[in-house]
Amino acid sequence: MLRISCRCGAAGAEAHGDASQAALRPAPGGQAARVLLALVIALILSGCAGRSGRPPAVSPSASSQANALLPSGEHVVQRGETLAMIGRRYGTDYQALARLNGIRSPYTIYPGQRLRLPGVGGVPAPTPIAPAGGWTWPTAGTTLRGYVAAHGGNKGLDIAGQIGQPVRAAAAGTVVYAGNGLRQYGNLVIVKHNEDYLSAYGHLQKITVAEGSAVTTGQTIASMGSPGDGPGVLHFEIRYRGTPIDPAAVLPRPSGG
């Protein structure tokens, strides 16, 4: 098991297809580098890390800290933590956490206990505020599959189109990842828009930007690919402080819609 040293004020990322959990499985020999890369990408998606040239510090000691960071909408209690400490970490009142998890006064919690966080299971999340300049659709096409908030659901939109058609930055920002380190996403670009927002673009045919590049709203960053041998599909996510939100709730209404 890997221990990740990372400070993050949000629920961690649950990668599309639960890639973060796959990354935590033990890996023999030559797979170790791929496992580490997958963890780094999951942390970028969670808002915990950038790609400034070196990954977060990693040591091989056993710990469940990574499990506390990675699942979206959940926190695994660590030794010495209190409900008030966890509430401050995620910007929510400890009494709201207690009500959500059925914990009564004196609010005793135990190491290893799983806590649900606001924003999951019908509890409203913070109201997102769009990056400067607002959002635009990343590509033309029809939404095949929408966002599903439930655990294990679709963390974004799957947009059907033609293989090779342009994929554009949904808002201005900086490319913090460009590669194919998570199998569930295929070729993937992640753009950081500000301290709160990331957007992710998966199943790409060709990536046309490099890590560290500044991009403008609507700039072409890739071409559409496919998750398999079928027609073109873009998997698109928006994450607010590491937690996936429904892109359709912040994107402009499609023309004619």
TrEMBL record:
Q: Which residues form the LysM domain?
A: 73-117
**Pfam family of this protein, just one?**
LysM
Q: Name one GO molecular function term.
A: metalloendopeptidase activity
* GO (cellular component) term, any one: cell outer membrane
Domain of life, per UniProt, equals Bacteria
Q: Which InterPro entries match?
A: Cell_wall_metabolism_enzyme, Dup_hybrid_motif, LysM, LysM_dom_sf, M23ase_b-sheet_dom
Q: Which family is it part of? A: Belongs to the E.coli NlpD/Haemophilus LppB family.
Quote the protein name from its UniProt record: LysM domain-containing protein
Source organism of this protein record = Immundisolibacter cernigliae
